[in-house]
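About this split. The held-out portion is used to measure sequence recovery: a designer receives only the structure tokens and must propose an amino acid at every position. Recovery is the fraction of positions where the proposal matches the reference. Here is one held-out target exactly as it appears in the evaluation file.
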């Protein structure tokens, strides 16, 4: 019976080691994603405008193109771009650390629970921070003259908030399960 348990444990550990290695591919893919997002922000509006008729092209001129902005406008735009990407980098980093701990055989430890807790907090707070910073940067770009219109957006991603609340609740459930398991081991 112990042989089966060790083989299942080893299989899980090997799977987590593979997942840990896969996270390095995710980091590389993240760099590619940054490059593609940069290219989309700098070239898509030119390509779209070229394919439109003259009246439609006037309307497409409303779309912000960072290459046509002033120095301050570009600094604001790319700062917001980097800030928004940092959200994903932080989440990937927390997940990678958790998977690395799992690969080392440390699954139900306090660091894992703290990682789940912080991911929940970040997911709950992020939609509000994103809307506030995006609107502030767009307003600043409008005041500088790099954006023709300022139309504030109040789109809050409720799914992200719900996911964060779920992770925060999951942390407490896992913490309670660990406590019950510890009490069970002490009574036996």
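Reference sequence for scoring:
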């Amino acid at each position: 019976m112990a042989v089966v348990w060790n083989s299942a444990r080893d299989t899980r550990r090997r799977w987590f080691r593979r997942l840990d290695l896969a996270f390095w591919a995710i980091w590389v893919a993240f760099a590619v994603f940054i490059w593609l997002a940069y290219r989309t922000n700098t070239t898509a509006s030119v390509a779209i405008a070229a394919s439109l008729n003259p009246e439609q092209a006037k309307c497409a001129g409303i779309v912000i193109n960072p290459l046509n902005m002033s120095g301050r406008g570009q600094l604001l735009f790319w700062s917001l771009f980097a800030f928004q990407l940092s959200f994903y980098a932080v989440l990937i980093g927390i997940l990678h650390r958790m998977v690395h701990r799992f690969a080392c055989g440390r699954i139900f430890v306090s660091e894992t629970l703290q990682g789940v807790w912080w991911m929940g907090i970040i997911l709950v707070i992020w939609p509000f921070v994103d809307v506030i910073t995006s609107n502030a940067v767009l307003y600043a770009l409008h005041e500088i003259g790099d954006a023709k219109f300022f139309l504030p957006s109040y789109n809050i991603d409720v799914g992200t908030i719900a996911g964060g609340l779920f992770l925060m609740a999951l942390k407490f459930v896992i913490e309670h399960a660990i406590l019950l398991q510890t009490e069970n081991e002490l009574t036996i």
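Annotator remark: Residues 2-187 form one domain.
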